[in-house]
Amino acid sequence: MKVMKFGGTSVGSADRMKEVASLVSDGDNNIVVLSAMSGTTNNLVEISNYLYKKNHDGANRIINQLEKKYYEEIDLLYKNSKIKEEATEVVKSRFDFIKSLVKDEFSEVEEKEILAQGELMSTAMVNLYLIEQGKDSVLIPALEFMKTNSDGEPDISYIKENIKKYLDIHKDSKILITQGYICRNVNDEIDNLQRGGSDYTASLIGAAVNADEIQIWTDIDGMHNNDPRYVENTKSIAELSFDEAAELAYFGAKILHPTSVLPAKVANVPVRVLNTMEPKAPGTTISGKDSKNRITAVAAKDGITAIRIHSGRMLMAYGFLRKVFEIFENHKTPIDMITTSEVGVSVTIDKLKHLDEIVDELKTFGSVEVDSDLVIICIVGDLVRENKGYANRIFDALKDIPLRMISYGGSDHNISVLVSSENKKEALRALSAKLF
Ligand SMILES: Nc1ncnc2c1ncn2[C@@H]1O[C@H](COP(=O)(O)OP(=O)(O)O)[C@@H](O)[C@H]1O
Ligand SMILES: N[C@@H](CC(=O)OP(=O)(O)O)C(=O)O
User: Fold this and answer.
1) Distance 220 CA to ligand 1 centre (A)
2) Are strands 175-179 and 182-184 parallel, antiparallel or unpaired?
3) Looking at the predicted structure, is the pLDDT value of residue 179 above 70?
4) Where does ATP bind (predicted)?
């Protein structure tokens, strides 16, 4: 059994949905995870933002534009008038539901309900198209088996147990379609796995059913060795280890959601990144196989803030770092990079909600400097200690770029540097030119 995930661009229009339908009808048993049509989730976020501000006109304007777009795609998608009517009915009821939330009382619960509508519509549309084509396809509702626990983390045993019920009920169906991204939380309310979370859904399902393979279908032929949005002539990487893929996803390679590698790694299910526009291209295979002796790829994570604590108390002291980290822990703020010297420590964060409180508390140790608008550039590969010369090549490539922090040795797979966001493009391009 395969899990096949198609992102927003891959289900972004009637034509793209037809392509998806043909790819999932390959005769195998497939669980198909779909995102919302591209742009939809952003529109749903906009609608929610208007509703928080009690701007009903703003919300209605976006709702009407979006609804119109769905009817246009439905018109192009189906030939059979009964199926077209059924799809129109589904979409209309979803928009009626969104419209019913256009009122003054608006909270996070309603916001999450609105954000779930995109995936509910795209899956119903593709499923009906497959049925029109005479395919053996059924919808299985993610809201009945994807669940998070009291820590907001996926409830793995619940997911395993409940998806199995649907597999048993539909054991004779070749194609099972479900929603990416959406889930229920510990209070049984509709929730989601964070933006871009459909990859995570696919990986969790792949692990839960012990799939032969998890396929992430997108609009590019695999994970590239640098960010194609900023660098020309990037190349698809044929094979990646789980560890390399996790580092790249975490440090900004947008093609994979940062959380999506771990469930596949734990269950040892290979992940393939494939291109809907070029289905025969080999793409990238991510597996437990380690790559040897190479610098594999570069990625960049934006929106980073660095905090430097300068303190005489660190000199010869023990327990100092624990006290510093405790402040971040108390404010539920993860740290990305860390560098230390005898009298100071620098850390980076990208969640800024509690920055002011954190800085105030850190000031009890000494002077605190905050630098914002930074980018972590992460260079990933097989960088084990015996391999010499990698750092030299990397710093040679970056010799004209001011480096704010450097992190090396945290794992065998990653060298990270912190640069100002205005130097991001130049740094990515310089690294591609020297390394690949
Ligand atoms: N290292 C990389 N390799 C491939 N694509 C990348 C990389 N870094 C960023 N991207 C961007 O990620 C995009 C695909 O991600 P996304 O838009 O989230 O896809 P989907 O809609 O299929 O979920 C690509 O079009 C590409 O521009
Ligand atoms: N629709 C959701 C979930 C998702 O994963 O989308 P995509 O696969 O298009 O990145 C979002 O936009 O966040």
Assistant:
1) 7
2) unpaired
3) yes
4) 5-8, 218-219, 229
Beta bridge partners of 30: 2, 175
For residue 251, being part of any structural domain is answered with no
Tens digits of residue pLDDT in 134-161: 999 999 999 999 999 999 999 999 999 9
Four-residue CA torsion sign, 18, 20, 21, 25: positive
Domain assignment present for 274: no
- 219 annotated to a ligand binding site: yes
pLDDT tens, position by position, 370-390: 999 999 999 999 887 677 888
Which residues have CB under 8 Å from 69's CB, separation 6+?
none
Q: Choose one of 180, 203, 218: the last residue of a domain.
A: 218
Determine contact, residues 142/119, Cβ cutoff 8 Å: yes
Retrieve residue 80's tokens.
């059979």
CA distance 9 to 31: 19
Q: Is residue 252 part of a domain?
A: no
Mean pLDDT of 90-116: 97
How large a percentage of the chain has pLDDT more than 90?
90
Which tokens sit at 110? 């309603």
Is 258 touching ligand 2 by the criterion CB < 6 Å?
A: no
Burial of 86 (0-12, 13-18, 19+ CB in 10 A): middle
Q: Please state, in angstroms and rounded to a whole number, the distance separating the CA atoms of residues 108 and 116.
A: 12
| DSSP state, residue 224 | B
Among the bound ligands, name the one nearest to the CA of residue 116: 2
Of 218, 241, 265, which residue is a domain's last?
218
Q: Three-class SS of residue 411?
A: coil
| CATH number of the domain bearing residue 57 | 3.40.1160.10
- CA Rg value for the chain: 24
Is 6 annotated as ligand-binding?
Answer: yes
Helix (H), strand (E) at residue 8: none
Specify whether 305 is located in the same domain as 180: no
233 part of a folded domain: no
Ligand 1 pocket residue status of 118, Cβ below 6 Å: no
Query: How far, in Å, from the CA of 137 to the mean position of ligand 2?
Result: 22
The DSSP symbol for 232 reads: S
Q: Looking at the structure, do residues 51 and 163 belong to the same domain, yes or no?
A: yes
Q: How many Cβ atoms sit within 10 Å of the Cβ of residue 228?
A: 15
Helix (H, G, I), strand (E, B), or coil: what is residue 363? coil
* Total tally of structural domains belonging to the chain: 2
Where in the sequence is the domain holding 75, given as residue range(s)?
2-218
pLDDT per position as a tens digit, 182-201: 999 999 999 999 999 999 99
Taking CA atoms, 436 is separated from 51, 362, 429, 433, in Å, by 48, 41, 10, 6
Q: Is 196 in the pocket of ligand 2 (CB under 6 A)?
A: yes
Q: Write the CATH number for 365.
A: 3.30.2130.10
